[in-house]
Design a protein that fits this description.
This protein is α/β, with parallel strands linked by helices and 459 residues long. Helix content is 37%, strand content 16%. The strands form three sheets. It has a seven-stranded mixed beta sheet with strand order 4-10-9-8-7-5-6, sandwiched between helices. Strands 11, 12, 13, 15 and 16 form a five-stranded antiparallel beta sheet that branches. The protein is globular and about 65 Å long. The chain binds pyridoxal-5'-phosphate. Pyridoxal-5'-phosphate (PLP) binds next to helix 5.
């Protein structure tokens, strides 16, 4: 069979319908409607195969294209690198990984080593393996458990789903891996205690109870998103980080911050954890590192951790025996270098703060107007609006109703996101994460689309 021509739209859509299994998608509807095929992007906008234009308020659907579409500078740098050296296994270094590691660590005081891989899930698994290996080396195998938080997400593999606090994501995929222990979420709007007073301190106290129940001598690490993303855009309450960080120090627990979404500017700092007074032992990142121009993830840690893995060179198993084949692709770090330079040269972190504040104020206005908005949350250009059936009781809006809002926006050329099939009964938060290049006009257009959709769906 001849290859389909790139301009033969009907054939491309047909081949997609017949051959491609889309991510996170129920395919039955594609028996009667066309699957969407995206073909082009420029700045804040994307076009599908039928030529429909969209303003993208979610940076490629999942908080990824932080510097916007169509960056020739990144494409040029990747091309030049690919013709020079596209790949060599990560057991050797490369020019781009060496340069990028330096640029990255300059932004992360207290952290000293970068391990390259190619997805967020994979970067998180590196930490899980290191924690287990440290348990073997230092604690007779005992201190291997990893705490993870209700409503957080750390990836799609069986081990990262074992550390996942979103039961609809993991449903049907068990049995899971031993050694992961759930701790409470910290969403004050969904307070799980008798009163919400001193909410942060209450969550910390509930976490400490779990540590004591399990035995601190069994717990190696605590894995947390700085701001929970797909679990509902949850900005932790006052006192939370100080308390969690104190627990880690008190019980000798390593702190792993999952910056797969928040990392590289999304929240108005280079990293989400830098809003808080904490010093992690591990930071993982992926999506915004190269804005989707190449696949790359990084696991960053301290010399204190790294040095443990070179302590006894005579022991043949005493190093980190892990490889990520595509962690050796040079396209990832070379794209990441240009991505970081763009953020710096164009002042995109500053723009993120300014536009994030503006977007938050516009969401607050929408909340005044529409009773269905129960709560608005977020930091920088990482924002959410939780929809409720009743403001007094906070009864969550059913997922199907929330989906009508995103569908209305989509039909009108604006792509917004929502939490979906994640936390049972609470897939009711609209999500916004426009690229860090967005303007006031873009925000106004996004807000207008949501305003119109809320009116159309709920009156
Ligand atoms: C917080 C967080 N961690 C990890 C991941 C997994 O990243 P990946 O899909 O690149 O494996 C995601 C993906 O959405 C995420 O939101």
């Amino acid at each position: 069979m001849d290859a389909i021509q790139t301009n033969d739209t009907d054939a491309i859509i047909e081949a997609d319908r017949n051959n491609v299994w889309h991510h996170l998608t129920q395919h039955k509807p594609y028996e009667t409607v066309d699957p969407r095929v995206m073909v082009e992007g420029k700045g804040m906008r994307v076009w599908d195969a039928r030529g429909k234009e969209f303003l993208d308020a979610v940076s490629g659907g999942v908080w990824t294209v932080n510097v916007g579409y169509g960056r020739e500078r990144i494409a040029d740098a990747v091309r030049d690198q690919l013709v020079k050296l596209n790949y060599f296994a990560g057991s050797a270094g490369s020019i781009p990984s060496s340069i990028f590691s330096q640029m990255l660590l300059d932004k992360m005081p207290g952290l000293d080593r970068v391990y390259f891989a190619n997805s967020g899930s994979e970067a998180n698994e590196k930490v899980f393996k290191i924690v287990r290996q440290i348990a073997q080396k230092k604690y007779n195998g005992k201190k291997y458990k990893i705490l993870y938080r209700d409503r957080d997400y750390h990836g799609t593999t069986i081990a990262t789903l074992s550390a996942g606090g979103q039961d609809e994501r993991s449903a049907h995929y068990g049995p899971f891996v031993d050694g992961f222990v759930r701790i409470p979420h910290c969403l004050e709007y969904r307070n799980q205690f008798e009163s919400a007073e001193n909410y942060g301190a209450q969550v910390v106290a509930a976490t400490e109870e779990i540590i004591l129940r399990e035995g601190p001598e069994t717990i190696g690490a605590m894995c947390l998103e700085p701001i929970t993303a797909g679990g509902g855009v949850i900005t932790p309450p006052e006192g939370y980080w100080e308390g969690m960080s104190a627990l880690c120090r008190k019980y000798d627990i390593l702190m792993h911050i999952d910056e797969v979404v928040c990392g590289v500017g999304r929240t108005g700092k280079w990293f989400g954890y830098q809003h808080y007074d904490i010093q992690p032992d591990f930071v993982t990142m992926a999506k915004g590192v190269a804005s989707g121009y190449a696949a790359i993830s990084c696991m960053v840690t301290t010399n204190a951790v790294f040095d443990m893995f070179k302590s006894d060179a005579s022991d043949p198993l005493n190093y980190f025996r892990d490889i990520s084949t595509f962690g050796g692709c040079t396209s990832g770090p070379v794209a990441a270098i240009e991505n970081m330079k763009i953020i710096e040269e164009e002042g995109l972190i500053e723009n993120c703060i300014e536009m994030g504040d503006y977007c938050m104020s516009r969401l607050e206005e929408l909340k005044e107007k529409h009773d269905v908005i129960g709560d608005v949350r977020g930091k920088g250009l990482f924002l959410g609006a939780e929809l409720v059936k009743n403001r007094e009781t906070r009864e969550p809006m059913p997922e199907g109703e929330v989906a009508k809002v995103t569908a209305h926006c989509m039909a009108n050329g604006v792509i917004i996101g929502m939490t979906n099939r994640s936390v049972p009964g609470f897939n009711n938060t609209l999500c916004l994460s426009p690229a860090l290049i967005c303007t006031k006009q873009d925000i106004d257009d996004i807000i207008t689309a949501i305003d119109n959709a809320l009116t159309a769906v709920f009156g």
